[in-house]
Amino acid sequence: MKFLFVIDPIENLNLETDSTIEIMDECSKKIEIDYCETRDLFFDKSKVYATSTQILLKNKRYKKVKAEKKLLDFFDLILMRKEPPYDLNYHYATMLLDKTKTKVINSPQGLRNANEKLAILNFPEIIPKTIVTKEEKKIVEFVNTNKKAVIKPIHLFGGQAVSILEKNDRDLKKKIHDIIKKEQDYAIVQEFIEETYKGDKRIFLLNGKLLGGILRVPKKGDFRANMAVGGKPQKYIITNKDKKIIRMIRPYLKKEGLALAGIDVVGNKLIEINVTCPTGLVQIKDFDKNNITKDIVSYLVKEAT
Hints:
By secondary structure, this protein is an alpha+beta fold. The chain has helices at 19-27, 88-97, 108-113, 136-146, 172-180, 240-255, 281-288, 292-304; strands spanning 2-6, 32-36, 41-44, 47-58, 61-71, 77-80, 104-105, 130-133, 148-153, 163-166, 187-191, 200-206, 209-217, 232-235, 260-266, 269-274.
């Protein structure tokens, strides 16, 4: 069996904590692994190919074997695991992946449909008060009404450029325009939930079913819990309210072919649905003392056969 992983430059991945490396390492025990970057995908003479590199892995250390042109149909399964930003090049890559007969996880069409900031808009009853707009006036009105809010750029990830907006902040308009760029770019603005300071929950799902979760706690002086900006993971026990959120979004994830997903929850509110390359798998596995990566690989093998 042969799997292709479409990833960021492998040299840039943290071998100890990266979720993709974790999955690749577990797969390699029984499966031949190739990887490529989106720039290595190409269409020629009615077929889609990749200049992919076969690798051998053991204990998360890899050795490159050789790179060569391969038809995407040659693989039994393809995993699209490139990190955001979801830009036009990412978009075009999903369109190329649509042209193979091989199953792709997550679904290219599903990835196009599910912007990680905006997918939550499908579930208005379980998200914070939210607006999406380019207009400064609308954002100021929202902040004045809710007293305190969080503004995020739609295309970034890992807590980048996320800031708090407060009614009496002298820098309010500057913070807004840092995101909307003279009303050229969309922003998502949400009411601030005070429980944010205690941390957010990253919950990992496989085909809409619960695998486990962690609590990510912000570093001192910050409100962002993303591990990329210093948030620290802690063991977390999933609650019945978390399970209710999972039940509500499960049909959507299955319908869109988003088998690997990580949702972010603050308090009882759904904040994001991460589907490009959700992190946290290694930390959940370590805290729960349960090899959930093995469960993921078993699922992938079934999907490939």
